[in-house]
User: What shape does this take?
Amino acid sequence: MNALGKQLLVEFTGCEPGRLSDPEFIAQAMLRAAQASGATVVTHSFHHFAPLGVSGVVIISESHLAIHTWPEHAFAAVDYFTCGSRIEMPLGLDVLKEALGAAAMDVVSVQRGAGIAPIPSAGLPRG
Amino acid sequence: MNALGKQLLVEFTGCEPGRLSDPEFIAQAMLRAAQASGATVVTHSFHHFAPLGVSGVVIISESHLAIHTWPEHAFAAVDYFTCGSRIEMPLGLDVLKEALGAAAMDVVSVQRGAGIAPIPSAGLPRG
Assistant: This one.
């Protein structure tokens, strides 16, 4: 891959609204998703917004996994940004889809730093 | 805007490598960028990766602002995700461009939750 990073822009629709409103549930689902992908978790931070919705991010050695939820629309937007090719992002997304009870998952893949030659160690985690 | 959120995928090239390696400098620049946009900062987390590079995120009431740097390529990838129309993202990006000493800034805009009707309060911050 002639790029420094890869990012998946993921949209989950038809989710269980109660799950999307629960910051602890969302945090645990995101951590399980990162681990299922083989990512190394550095830290995480999740917040509940009144009256609805959760925002949060898991920082991993290989970049980040972020979520914003709209329970009132049964909708969640997820970003999964990684560098290197070691991380199995689809495995993490499968975990999230099941955890959120999503009816559908739409994924757009974007290259970041395209055209900038990766260094030889780019296949390894940065941390 | 018939979408729940808007996301800018931003790539800074020709940056000052020394700045991209300094987690405290990057954190302060990101916080200033969020504030310049009119965003409400909830929390932030920044990390230095050996031997090079910084990853971090600012969680704002209106979503998030994330960065990953590659000092060895004078390159930084930034994501600015917001809901509502109150945030002036370009003002924040101008702050970052100057702080990083970037020669160029490339911006791609993406709608998130497109086609899902925004609720009447979507123009207000969620927090």
Remarks:
- Chain B has one domain: 16-112.
- Chain B has a mean pLDDT of 90.
- The beta strands of chain B are 5-13, 41-48, 54-60, 63-70, 75-83, 104-112.
